[in-house]
Write a structure and sequence with these properties.
79% helix, 0% strand
Length: 129
Amino acid sequence: MINKKKIIKYLATGGISFVVEYGSFMILVYPIAVDAWIGQIASYCLTIIVNFLLLRNWAFSQDKDGRLSGHITKYASLIVFNLLITTILIYLLTSANVPAFIAKLVVIILTTIWNYILYDRVVFRESVR
C-alpha cells in the first residue's frame, strides 16, 4: 500500500537535502573552481547528517523503536554505495561534456528514485508485529 504522507515527507526532506547538496556543489564547482567530482564528494558528505536526521526523525518516524544503530548501519551502507555510484556518474557525464550543473541534476533525480524504495523497504522498514 502506498503511504502518501510518507512520500510527501520524503520529498520535502529531499527538497531540503537538495538545497544543501546542490547549493554547496554549485559554490564549490563554480566560484571556488574545484573539479566537479571533488565537489560531488564534498556536497554529498555535507548533506548526509541533515538527511539522516530528517528521514529518521520525521519522514520515516513511525519506526524508531530505539534501533538507531541498525538505522545508522543500513543508512551508512547506502551512503557508501550512493557516493561511489554518483561520483562515477558525475565523472562520466562531465567527461562526456555534460555541464556539471546538469550532470548533478541527473544524478539527484536517479538517487531520489532508488533511495525512496531502499529507505522504505530496508533502512527504515517498519517492524512486523
